[in-house]
Amino acid sequence: MTHPIVKTVSNMVFEGNIDSAERALATVADQEGDFALARVIDEMAPRDLVAILREHDASRGSIISELISPAQFLAAVSLESGYRERGHESLKGMINAVVFADAARTDDFIEVLGSTPEGVAALVDYFADRHEEIEYFFRNGTYSEFEGEDFSGIPAEDSDLDVGEPDDRVRRTMVRQSEVEDHDWRELGWRLRADHYEIFREILEILRRKYRQALAEQAQVAALAAAAAAAAAAASAEDDEDDVL
């Protein structure tokens, strides 16, 4: 039987009362315990979870991020991707808030994200503006102090990924986890590279494919512009000849 608070919270979310919805959930934990609240969260619609997580203040802990199940987290992240938010800031905040809420469950959340195309796509969006830094980390085992738009280090093919899974030798050259525990993209990149290489590899493959596609589109636009300019120059020259005649 569905807990009655589920409908109450859903109505609050629909009305835009996110703070009230969070307080209502906290009341369940206070009165019935965390286990009861975890069951309530499992019964909630992913759209309601997304709405609460999107509006949550990242500077303080979230009762949902602490008790949400991996399956519900995946459903919420998959739905969040549909917002097509420029910069994916809400998606990043949601992933950080949940993945790093409980160190004992971090690997569970990473694995569930890597288990479906939607989850992997969310991770690709998460790292979309950190592609060069992740490539540098893959090659060097540490993060560059440079953060920008220099994509010169992105290979033209993916053969390097075939031998990229870290062995004991590679692990010794990698920056220590304690040095990147920022509960943000550096730590998530490290965990993926060190402990979930197949997911890390898939993310890099997709980021590279998107980068190459963008390059091809830019080249096509440049070629069309050059052709148009050449045609315009030829037409102008022909008009000049006609004027002379």
Uncertain regions: pLDDT < 50 for 5+ in a row? none
- How far is it from the N-terminal to the C-terminal residue, by CA? 92 Å
Task: Give the class from helix and strand content and strand pairing.
Answer: mainly alpha
Kindly state the mean pLDDT as a whole number? 87
Work out the helicity level.
55-70%
Number of helices: 13
Q: From N to C, what is the helix and strand string?
A: HHHHHHHHHHHHH
Estimate the strand proportion.
Answer: under 5%
Question: How would you sum up this structure in a few lines?
Answer:
The chain has 245 residues and is an all-alpha fold. The chain contains 13 helices and no strands.
Describe the protein in words.
By secondary structure, this protein is mostly helical. The protein contains 13 helices and no strands. Helix 1 packs antiparallel against helix 2. The longest helix is centred in the last third of the chain and has 48 residues, at 197-244. It is flat and about 95 Å long. It starts with a helix and ends with a helix. The relative contact order is 0.08.
